[in-house]
Amino acid sequence: xxxxxxxxxxxxxxxxxxxxxxxxxxxxEDIELIADYLNYMNKALKSIQxxxxxxxxxxxxxxxxxxxxxxxxxxxxxxxxxKS
Length: 84
Fold this sequence. Notes:
Blueprint: H1 3-19, H2 22-25, H3 28-49, H4 55-83
Protein name: Phage protein
Organism: Taylorella asinigenitalis (strain MCE3)
């Protein structure tokens, strides 16, 4: 498994957790911590994307950004949906 594969796998695991019943059991502080982590990762990905790189690497960065954005959106939607 390459570093990229491990990184991508971590995002997929986070996304699965957000989409699961696990979200119903975590506290607001946990949600904020996850959101902070994802926002930080998104900023890091944007910085990395500014570097000159091959189209395949650039495409992977864009895919990771999309996963991060989708996960943040799902997290926010589920959190507010569960708290109302």
